[in-house]
Amino acid sequence: MIQKGLDNIDYPTLAPNLFEPVKYMLEGGGKRVRPTLVLMAANLFTDDIQDAVIPAIGLEMYHNFTLLHDDVMDKAPERHGRKTVHLRWNENVAILSGDAMQALSYQLIARTPSYCLKEVLDIFNQNNIEIDQGQQLDMEFENRGNVTLPEYIEMIRLKTSVMLGAALKMGAVIAKATPEQAQILYDFGVNLGLAFQLQDDWLDCWGDPKTFGKRIGGDILCNKKTYLRIKAESKLMPPSTFRGQTEEQYIEMYKNYFIMTGAEVSCRNAISEYVAKANECLNRLNMPDEKLSLLKSLAAKLENRNA
Amino acid sequence: MIQKGLDNIDYPTLAPNLFEPVKYMLEGGGKRVRPTLVLMAANLFTDDIQDAVIPAIGLEMYHNFTLLHDDVMDKAPERHGRKTVHLRWNENVAILSGDAMQALSYQLIARTPSYCLKEVLDIFNQNNIEIDQGQQLDMEFENRGNVTLPEYIEMIRLKTSVMLGAALKMGAVIAKATPEQAQILYDFGVNLGLAFQLQDDWLDCWGDPKTFGKRIGGDILCNKKTYLRIKAESKLMPPSTFRGQTEEQYIEMYKNYFIMTGAEVSCRNAISEYVAKANECLNRLNMPDEKLSLLKSLAAKLENRNA
Fold this sequence. Notes:
By secondary structure, the first copy, chain A, is mostly helical. Chain A contains 15 helices and 2 strands.
């Protein structure tokens, strides 16, 4: 349903080259988590989720726009194993086709049924401004030494979690959920997103190299401020003897440092707490278990994922 | 009214640095042509134009977003006599705050009254996608030798004219004009925009250096494909003796070449034709002359402007 929607997007025809990078981005894959969440939320309240499909595609378009521009800003060479747009074409193409993707995403959102257009547009707008603020904080944190855990959590909330909340809330609103139900699903999504990002931080150290997809220790090597690093440094600065090792030794020493300082345990506890909070939200929906089984298994999988 | 609206924008507070370049762009000045057109169009149909103010501000925000990202793509050093955002801050800041401006513009557009939200959003979306396509064609033309006049006209229609049409149509729709009236005003705006851009091409050669604001001959020196150059080259390629002159001589030789080939006359005729077409649109509105006087004087001023 989602793939078909993505394949059937009507691209404007006056400057066809503008949309080649857009198609390239969308063909790059990804798990389509956000549009799936839109449809799953809608499906809690209605069997006919057709009205939610185009807005769901709009959100996926928007998500891919953020990836495209983030890749430019991060000078990332690859995404999903393929050259990033600014390397395959050039930076101007990446900027402009990203801008077009943001506009296209709004064109899709504008096709939300009229009874909830304003509400869905407001959710979408708030999400988009928050995402931009999250990216801004992420870039600022790179040049700051004293980032605290609450600041870090706020950054990942904005940069990655609110979009999961927005996806669920959009689906709920389209399917005529009550405002309370829509808000509960939003909160579920944000907590799930926080757990997801912290799990990502943890997997960088202890993920299965066969399935994780990224190099184990990548965050450590580029000195990325993750939950683990911020937590560990708040207890004890890393010994200067870490310098001058081989990369593999350096990664191992950092992993031990994260364990020794209690950062690893703290990270796992935080993940469990966010998953528990997410599950509490679902319980507050007062719906039969079989309705919620998909969302519950999503939360359970997330806590135990190794990839 | 417009300046007050721009001054009173409620910026999000979670990452305040993100909005410093946004404010900087909006403080840079500009003639506020687009929001003024929104309000002038609304005023044709209603005395109370309050409903049109926020959407007008949204369009001005969007316009400034396109300027910001165009400056990055063009590596422009200055705008309105001040450093461009990517030089005053850096390129990443310019990309991200531009993205935020596009999102903010939609947040303002979303405050359009509900009776016409969908219609205004559709006009805005179509405009935005067309602007992106215009910029794409403009970039492609830089690397192409064989751009024809119809292609050039189509490019400037997309890149600069449709936004004037969209401004007027938005104002008309908000003020409950009929679809025919709204479309006539759109056509008026597009013709006005085409005349404006061709006048800009002409002023690059024969404008008053005291008031034009840009260096006379700037387009000639950077080999920009303008109406004059494309028309002239379709008659006669510029003699190779143009090379190796001083800049002032080079500009003078090109101006003579544009006159000799008839490109100058052709350009003035085209401007008059688009202004005439614009005026025809106004006549089709069947409104008392005093109602239309502001728009008519705008068209007249444009044809005779020297700055």
